[in-house]
Amino acid sequence: MAIIHNPIIPGMAPDPSIIRVGNDYYLATSTFHWTPAVQIFHSTDLANWELTGYALDHGEVNLRGTNTPAGIWAPHLSYDPASKRFWLAYSHMQNMAGREFNSDSFAVWSDSINGPWSKPIYLTSIGFDPALFHDDDGRHYVSILEWETRTGYQAPGHIVVAEIDLVNGGIIGDWHRVTTGFTTRGCAEAPQLYKHNGYYYLLIAAGGTGYAHGVEIGRAKDVFGPYTPHPSGEPIITSSPHHLFSLGDPDAGHFEMQNPNTPIQKSGHGSLVSTPSGDWYVAHLMSRPLPGTSLNPLGRETSLQKMTWSQDGWLQMADGSNLAKATTPAPRDYPNTQQDFASFDINDQFETNQVPAHFMTPYREQTNDWVNTTERPGHLRIYGDNSFFSQVDPAIMATRATSLDYTVQTKLEFHPVHYSQTAGLGLYYDANNWLYVRLCQDDTEDHTVLRVLQAKLGQRTDDIFTEVPVKNDTVELQLRYHMGFATISYRLDSQSDWQRLTQDIDVTYLSDEGVNGEPGEIGGFTGLFNFIGAVDAYQHQSFADFSYYTVKNNTLKG
Q: For residue 164, how many other CB atoms are within 10 A of its CB?
């Protein structure tokens, strides 16, 4: 029997929302402070996925100044067979301070999954994680978490449902409070409606975003309830099946629930899909900690579990348990192909006029005035801008880290004329946390050197004692990431051997639990990126030309 290995989409691919239209599967994931916003993946077999583009890539959102881990949360994909339109609902989390969680929710539509997408239609500001449901009677509904701010009331609030006006926006009638969760784990969020054999099923995430995370389910004969919880009283998918009572507990980490007996953790926030042959699956997020730690550099990734319907009409994992697995049985109609993990390697030679789609940028849009492949054919040109501590205009082109053991490499030419101009390669989590090996002027401003700069929890460290002169302003850089430690090498001539600049830099803090996110939160829940970029705090005129960019994952499967 063929099996599918998890994660099916490694690296930052959280909050998956999956649909099938005909024989094609589509999946959307959160992007937080990264642009373009909302990744969209495509597959024909549930095992092999390709990034096809983004839903919000024309200035629909302004993410400048976004604090970790706010931004674009929990996109929900749906397809309305009546209008033959794809819909995508999402939240723009603007503020998390004081546990206020100010978020506006919108929906966009398109006749094609590849766009163009409509202008955003405002839905509500009641909370976050909206999902659309297109009923077979032609009505449309939105489900969402109503965020609770009253002292003494169960946090984070109620799951609410309302009829929605998809033409003019807004709701029709009133919000209906349907549940605060189907188990004792609390932190109910991300509600998604489905209809099966005469019942409305409400799939929700619970237990917080950390080690107690899970997928819960309830059902009702009416879309507004009342909803009956799954008879087990427990999540139907989780990495930590041990019973937990945490109603009203705002702790999103729950480190005490880390399960030492499974390679994947934090399984939760699921989305349901069926295959043409009638098999059922839930796509869900998960994480892979560094061995022996509770730190998750890759953020939350996307996995898949095969499901069945019980005789009494309840959804459950196909193996009868509720423990998420590192492998799952493939569908009956699975083609005779192998799961291609090499597809997550990157080999960019910048030979076209298009910036490769896998590059993302924190906080700002990718525009031709600072990044392009046209001014010098065969190169990606990046104009320097704010320092990388900036949450406004950093000049960074980054790709998701997809393994705990990989090598990223590039070659660049850069001619600094001021000590504030730099360009190079590095690792990035957010504006307060990164590692950067860069070409820059030496302190006497009379020649170019290679030197390492690091940001940890907002503190800047410049390794002034480890630098190498670079006479012709051109260098190849290589960064090896291995289980939370980075080794940096260089060569000044492509015919020469690689030379070690520095090794075993501890970058374990570049992880969801290691960064300093919004005060009061556990840190972040985005993930590690590799990047090339440039800084110019002098005149914003200097630029770096990168002739290639490669990422080779040394271990990925499972």
A: 25
